[in-house]
Amino acid sequence: xxxxxxxxxxxxxxxxxxxxxxxxxxxxxxxxxxxxxxxxxxxxxxxxxxxxxxxxxxxxxxxxxxxxxxxxxxxxxxxxxxxxxxxxxxxxxxxxxxxxxxxxxxxxxxxxxxxxxxxxxxxxxxxxxxxxxxxxxxxxxxxxxxxxxxxxxxxxxxxxxxxxxxxxxx
Length: 170
Known about the structure:
three-stranded antiparallel beta sheet, about 40% helix
């Protein structure tokens, strides 16, 4: 399940802002810069560059983690997800046991049910999260350096679109 860590990462800066709110739902729009940047991944130190948002002129810092840092973060989750999976299976077995042996009367049965359901859900979530994070951490972080992000505005990254000239070369 090992994935390759890329030596180079291409990105485009994104500018996401809130266009409207209705109750609990929020509508956003994302603008993507026309210029694509790229960073080389170094073996032992992060690589960073200064960018600016074409839409609001914000000064941004794009940081790409080192190969060693990505491997270190992934190895933690490679060791953690099997432990969480075993504990999730054990709590599922306990849940089945509580459901089969409980007579439905008294607070002990109800407390046992709450505890085992909670443990099963939380450990299942921890398993899936750690399993996903065994493949993560190889993308850049985008942070604003000139000021805090205004309310409703967020900067990030996306993979750049291929242009017509790049399509013809492929």
